[in-house]
Amino acid sequence: MSTKLYASAAQALAGLCRDGMTVAAGGFGLCGVPLDLIVALRDSQARNLTVIGNNVGCDEHGMWLVLANGQIRKVILSYAGDNKILERAFMNQEIEIEFNPQGTLAERLRAGGAGIPAFFTRTGYGTLIAEGKEARQFANPDGSSDWYIMETGLTADVSLVKAWKADAAGNLVYRKTARNFNPMIAAAGRITIAEVEELVPVGEIDPDQVHTPGIFVDRIVVSTRQPKHIERPTTRPRTAGEPV
Amino acid sequence: MSTKLYASAAQALAGLCRDGMTVAAGGFGLCGVPLDLIVALRDSQARNLTVIGNNVGCDEHGMWLVLANGQIRKVILSYAGDNKILERAFMNQEIEIEFNPQGTLAERLRAGGAGIPAFFTRTGYGTLIAEGKEARQFANPDGSSDWYIMETGLTADVSLVKAWKADAAGNLVYRKTARNFNPMIAAAGRITIAEVEELVPVGEIDPDQVHTPGIFVDRIVVSTRQPKHIERPTTRPRTAGEPV
Amino acid sequence: MAWNREQMAERAAKELRDGYYVNLGIGIPTLVANLVPPGMTVTLQSENGLLGIGPFPYEGEMDPDLINAGKQTITDLPGSSYFSSADSFAMIRGGHIQLSILGGMEVAQNGDLANWMVPGKMIKGMGGAMDLVAGVPRVVVVMEHNDKSGAAKFRKACTLPLTGKGVVDLLITEIAVFDLDRKGLRAPLLVELAPGVGLDEVRTRTEAEFTLAPHLS
Amino acid sequence: MAWNREQMAERAAKELRDGYYVNLGIGIPTLVANLVPPGMTVTLQSENGLLGIGPFPYEGEMDPDLINAGKQTITDLPGSSYFSSADSFAMIRGGHIQLSILGGMEVAQNGDLANWMVPGKMIKGMGGAMDLVAGVPRVVVVMEHNDKSGAAKFRKACTLPLTGKGVVDLLITEIAVFDLDRKGLRAPLLVELAPGVGLDEVRTRTEAEFTLAPHLS
Q1: Residue D19 DSSP symbol
Q2: Which terminal Cβ of chain A has fewer Cβ within 10 Å, N or C?
Q3: Residues of chain B where predicted confidence (pLDDT) is lower than 70
Q4: CATH architecture of residue range(s) D5-31+97-212
Q5: DSSP β-bridge partners for residue D114
C-alpha cells in the first residue's frame, strides 16, 4: 500500500525537479508559504523554472532564495513588491515577469485545477492587462452589457503548498489567512506536495471541515519552521485600564 | 441596525416574489432541500417562474409542489428523474426544460456568483448539449489540444438554500452531502435566503470552518422540517456476531 | 460460457490500481466497490459531494444527509471529505479522478459513448455522466454485448445521442473485452474472451470493426 | 480651508450604509475603519481571505497566520470567516462587496482610474486593485487633488496606465467631492467644496470638465 508521507522536504521533492518545469507555490507575503519545500527546490538546483504565485518571496525568505540562486526564468504573479533581486534581474532582462490581477491569478489557478481552459472576466478590461487578449461583450440580467476579457487556466508540474493540519489520506486544513492561494495551487498541480505543521491521525479531521480533499495531495512532509516570521508587525497600544 | 433573521419562511420571502422571476434552489434529490422556503414560494402564487436546480423535487416534495401548482415556465436542471408531473407538462409543451450536465450546472452557478459570464468546458463537446454553443480548441500542456464548448454563468433573482447551522451574520455550515449545490446557489442569488436547522450565537462557528460566508446570505429562517425524509433507504444486513 | 454480472464486475476490478480515486456508476459498476483487492487503497468518489464512500448503513443508522449519487443512504469512512457539487466536478473535470467505470447503451469503435437518452422516450437528464466521461482520463464501460432485440451495442457509430465523443478506453461485456483508442487512430483491440466464447460468436454479435490482440491471433 | 487626511476619511465614511460589506485600500481609506457610525453594521473584507477585519492586535498577541492585504498583523471578530483567494475574489468580482474605497494617482472625467504603475519606474504589480474596481458596484477614490508638481490628477483623460475603465463613482480630494458617471454619459458633478475653498480654486486646480450640482450653482 503506497504512502503519501515523506520524512523531509528534500525526500518529498526527490525525482520531481527538472530544468524548465513550472512550479506553483502558495502564500501571500510570508503567510502560508511552504518554506521547507522552497529550500528543497533551491537545493535541487533545477533551472529555467517558471514560478507561479501571488508574489516571489520577501527579502531572504521563500521564493526569494530560488530567485537569488538564479533558477527562475519567468514569474507569473500579482505583486512583486519591494524585491530588489527581482527588479535587477528584470532590468537585466534575465527574467520575464507576467503580471496578473490578484483575483485573475487566483481564478486562473482555480480554473486550471478544475479542467477549465479559459474564462471571461471584467477585471483588466481596457487596461494593459487586456493587450493581446480576446475581449467580448456579455449581457447583464438587466439587458445592458459589459466588456470582458478572456483569461486562461494555469496548471503546474509541481505544486508546493503549506497547510496547518493533514492526515495520511492527504486531507488538508489551513489556518486563518494562511489559506490564501494554497487550495487552488494544490488542485492545479500535476504533483502536489504539502508542507504541514501537524500530521494528525486519519479520522481526526471532521469530513465536513476538510479544506483540500486528499485527492489533490500526493506527498506530505511535516514543516520544521517554527516560530513563523512576521513581515509587518502591527499592534495597537493598550489603553489605560484595559484588561491585559 | 438591520437583521437577517426572519420568523417564518413566508416572512422571509415576503416582498421578493414576482411573476417571471428566476429562482434557484439547493438540494440533490431530497437531500439539502429548503423545504419550508419552497412551500412559501408555492404559497406566494408567483407564476411563470424559471427554476434552477439539480432536479425539480421528488414526488410530492420540494419543488414538485411549485411545479404541481402550475407556477413554473422553465426549468434549468441536470436530472428530471421520474417526475410524472414534469413529464406531462413537458409533453403538453406547458414547460421548457433545459438539460445541463451536472458539473456544468454546478460550474455555471459558481461562475454566476463569481462574476464570470462564461467559461469553457470539455463536458458535452460533440453531444446534443453542444448544439448552438461556441466550440473551440485549447492546447494541453503536452502540446496536443482538445475541443471545448462555451457555457455561461447563471444567476437568480432569489436563491433558496438549506444549511445545517447559521449565525446572525449569515455564516452557514452544511452537513455531509446535504451541501451539494447550496454553496454555489447561495452566491448566485441577488437575494439569498437560508433555511437552517439551527441558529447558533455569533462567534460559535469557527471562522476557519464557515462554508458560506455571511456576505452571501440576506435572510435566515429556522426550518420546521424534522425528521427528514429519505428517498431511497438502503441498508446492509448485520452479520451474525457483529456488534450492534 | 459468458460471464455473469459478478464476473463482469470482477473483470472491471482488475482495472483498479493502488492509490486510485475512482467513480463508479450504478448497476454492475457498483459491484466493483466490494472487489478491491486486499492491501490496495482505492478511494471512491460520489459526485454529489463525498470522497471516501463507505458501505451501506445498518438498519436504524441511516442519515438523510448522507446519500450517494443514486440517492441511496450510504456511510463515510475515516479520512473521508465532503464538498460542494462545484468542487466535486472540479475534481472530475480537472482529471483528478483516475478511473470511471460506468454502464453504456452503445459504444462506437472510435470511443464514442451513448448512455443517457433514447429518443422518443422521456428524457430524464444526463446527471453527471457527461462530466465523468469528459473529465476522467480512463473510462471503462461495462455493458451487455447486445440489446434485448439482439442488436449489437458495440457499433461502427452510435445511433443514440452521445454522452461523450471519443471517451471510452476499455469495454467489458459478458463475452469479451476490447481496448479502444479514444483518438480513433487505430481499431479497437479484442484483448480477452470469456471462457468458452469463440471468436466467431464475438464477430457475429459485434458491429464494430476490431482487430485481435497478439495473444488471440 | 482644505480637508486634512482625517477629514477626507470622514467624508468617505459618509458613503457607508448599514449592512454594507466594504473593502478599504491602504492609506487614507484605511482610516475609514475607525469612523463607522455607532449603531451601523459594516463588515470589512481583506482580499487575502478574511471577512470581518478586527482592530490591530495588542503587543504580544500578533498571529503570523492573520494578516491583511497590506501584510500587517490584524485580528478577526465574532462572525468573521476565512476563505481562499479564489473565493475572496469571487466575492469581489461577483459584485457582493457593496463599496470599495481606495487611493488613486489619476481619475478621468469618464470614470477611468489609474493607480498601479508609473511608466519608467519598477512595476510592483496591481495586486487586487484591478479586481476591486472591476467587480465592486460602487467605487470611491480618495486622493490628493494635485500631484507634487501641482499638476491636476482629476483629468480629461488619464495619462498613466489604467487600473480600470469607467469604474469610479465618487472622487474625494482635500478640496472637493465629485460625483462621476461610470458610463461617461454625463460630465462629473461637483457636489461638495471643502470649507473655505472657492469654485475658482477648484477650477484652476482641475483639468477634468465638470458641472455644478444644483445647490452649488
Answers
A1: T
A2: C
A3: 1, 240-244
A4: 3-Layer(aba) Sandwich (3.40)
A5: D106
Distance from CA of C88 to the nearest CA of A (A): 9
Task: Tell me, yes or no, if C130 comes closer than 8 A to chain B by beta carbon.
Answer: yes
Q: CA A38, CA D205: separation in Å to the nearest integer?
A: 51
- Best residue in C61, C96, C122, C130 to probe B by mutation, most B CBs within 10 Å? C130
Q: Which of B182, B149, B166 is nearest to B221 (CA)?
A: B166
CATH code, A5-117+153-222: 3.40.1080.10
* Pairwise CA distance, residues A221 & A4, whole Å: 9
Residue C24 · residue C103 · CB < 8 Å: no
Phi, psi of B97 (to 5 degrees): -120, 125
What is residue B244's predicted lDDT score, i.e. its pLDDT?
47
- The reply to whether the predicted model has a pTM over 0.90 is yes
Is C51 an interface residue toward A (CB < 8 Å)?
yes
Catalytic option among C10, C15, C47, C144: C47
User: How would DSSP label each residue in D141-163?
Assistant: EE--SB-TT--BSEESS--SPPS
Question: In this structure, are strands B49-52 and B72-77 parallel, antiparallel, or unpaired?
Answer: parallel
Antiparallel, parallel or unpaired: β D99-102 and D113-114: unpaired
Distances in Å between the Cα of A148 and the Cα atoms of A104, A115, C43, C125, D87 are 12, 21, 40, 32, 20
The CA distance from B52 to B74, in Å, is 9
Please name the residue of chain B whose CA is at the shortest distance from the CA of residue A173: B208
Domain map (residue ranges) of chain A: 5-117+153-222
Inter-residue contact A119 to A162 (CB < 8 Å): no
Q: What is the DSSP string of C73-118?
A: B--EEEEEEE--HHHHHHHHHTT-S-EEEE--SEEETTS-EE-S--
Q: Measured between alpha carbons, how far is A219 from A3 in angstroms, rounded to an integer?
A: 8
pLDDT tens digit string along C9-47?
999 999 999 999 999 998 899 999 999 999 999 999 999
Residues in chain A with CB shorter than 8 Å from the CB of B121 are 115-116
E strand or H helix that includes residue B96: strand B96-99
Q: d(Cα B65, Cα B71) in Å, to the nearest integer? A: 9
- D207 in catalytic set: no
Domain ranges of chain C: 5-31+97-212
The Cα-based distances of B46 to A35, B89, B155, B190, B193 in angstroms read 57, 18, 18, 17, 17
Q: Indicate the residue of A97, A229, A232 with minimum beta-carbon distance to D72.
A: A232
- One-letter amino acid for residue C138 of the chain: R
ipTM of the prediction? 0.97
Neighbours of B140 (CB within 10 A): 11
Give whole-number Cα distances, C50 to B104, C43, C75, C85, D56, in Å. Answer: 18, 10, 10, 9, 39
pLDDT at D81: 98
pLDDT along chain A (244 residues), means of 10: 93 97 96 97 97 88 94 96 83 92 98 98 97 96 92 98 98 98 98 98 98 98 89 86 54
CB C46 within 8 A of CB C69: yes
d(C-alpha C211, C-alpha A110), whole Å? 42
**DSSP-assigned beta bridge partners for residue A232:** D72
Q: CA-to-CA distance for D132 and D139, rounded, in angstroms?
A: 8
Among the listed residues D6, D10, D47, D192, the single catalytic one is D47
Residue that is written with C-alpha cell 496591481 in the block: D126
Report the 10 Å Cβ neighbour count for C43.
23
Q: Which regions of D57-188 does DSSP assign to beta strands (E)?
A: 76-82, 99-102, 106-108, 113-114, 139-142, 154-155, 170-172, 176-179
Rg (CA), chain A: 19
Can you give the pLDDT at residue B170? Answer: 98
